[in-house]
Amino acid sequence: MGTDSIARLDIDSTGVSSGKTVIKGNSTKSRSLLLWATVATLALNFVPSQYSIVLLYPLRIFVTFFHESGHAMAAILTGGHVDYLQVFSNGEGVTYGRPPFWALWLFDSGGYIGTTISGAVLLQFASRSRWKLTLNGIGAYILVVTLLWAHNPIDNLFTLSAGVIMAAAMFAAAQFCSQAVSGFLVTFLAVQLCLNALGDLRMLFAITTATSGPIRDNDAAFMSQNYALPPVFWAVTWAGISVVILAISLRSYFRATARQGPIAK
Predict the structure, then answer these.
(1) Residues facing residue 86 across a β-bridge
(2) Looking at the domain assignment, is residue 10 inside a domain?
(3) Helix ranges, 8-103 (H)
(4) Is 115:128 a contact under the CB 8 Å cutoff?
(5) Rounded to whole angstroms, how far apart are CA atoms 216 and 206?
(6) Beta partners for 9?
(7) Strand, helix or coil for residue 132
(8) 177: domain range?
(9) How many structural domains does the chain have?
(10) Residues of 174-190 as b/e, b for ≥16 C-beta within 10 angstroms?
């Protein structure tokens, strides 16, 4: 009997065993993990700033890494080339790539949309209780991205170090954490990717609608340069797409966990 299942003997009305064992699936556990992961994410926003900076810093680097790898994957999947990606110690990042001209919009959109898709995919794995496998998968993804693209010879030691450390942390968690802790970690990271992508889009919207101060380089500004429409249009569009992706993922998550009800054997 696996540690994620609860077995009981099914007794009929005469008090005699019916010979069936009912296995209670992971529906309640998976949904509880999503609830607690969301609560933990929201609670972090109320931690005093002098402490939250330390607590949130690894998560900020984690999300930025997925954001930049989203740009890189968009370039590769459209037949382009990635020179390198870089994550800075302040939590910002940049990806230098050469996508086909027709795919510039996918390359520019790959950061925010790719992060949301990554979170949505993790939610699907979390709903199926493949927690340790998913942690190993996250570690492998981070390690491959790091080895392929974190090789800028100038001032890119932080990206290489952060990538290796995050990958090692995922492998270690998969190896040594219990099923319950592994499940929480996967669900928590999925929530982080989804909600931080939306939070970053909110900040991007504020930047693109600012009426004073210098215009900072950002994905929406690059889209505006390539496709004329104002940056705020792209910020709102990406936010809308992210919400749709998150809604579809949550619907699939709850449908998958609903199918994990008691099974007679």
Answers:
(1) 94
(2) no
(3) 27-44, 49-77
(4) no
(5) 12
(6) 21
(7) helix
(8) 27-264
(9) 1
(10) beebeeeebbbbbbbbb
Q: Which amino acid is at 195?
A: L
Q: pLDDT digits over 156-179, tens only?
A: 789 999 999 999 999 999 999 999
Q: SS3 of 222, please?
A: helix
pLDDT at 218 over 90: no
Answer for the pair 261, 28: CB distance below 8 angstroms, yes or no: no
CB 132 within 8 A of CB 250: no
The per-residue pLDDT for range 96-112, each reduced to its tens digit, is 999 999 999 999 999 98
Mean pLDDT of 185-213: 72
**In contact, 94 and 219? CB cutoff 8 Å:** no
Average pLDDT, the chain: 81
Q: Does residue 217 fall inside a structural domain?
A: yes
Q: Which two tokens stand for residue 262?
A: 């008691």
Tell whether pTM > 0.85.
no
Cα torsion 247, 113, 54, 250 to 10°: value is 20
- Residue 228 tokens read as 């004329």
Could you tell me which of 215, 221, 242 has the C-alpha nearest to residue 233?
Answer: 221
149 part of a folded domain: yes
Amino acid at 15: G
Specify the amino acid at residue 215. I
Q: Which helix (H) or strand (E) holds 198?
A: helix 179-208
Q: Residue 1 domain-assigned?
A: no
According to DSSP, the residues that pair with 17 across neighbouring strands are: 11
For residues 196 and 89, what is the distance between their CA atoms, to the nearest angstrom? 18
pLDDT at 213 over 80: no
- Residue 17 clears pLDDT 60, i.e. is over it: no
For the cut 50, the answer to whether the pLDDT of residue 199 exceeds it is yes
Pairwise CA distance, residues 78 & 153, whole Å: 26
Q: Over 90: is that where the pLDDT of 85 sits?
A: yes
For residues 189 and 139, is the Cβ–Cβ distance under 8 A? Answer: no
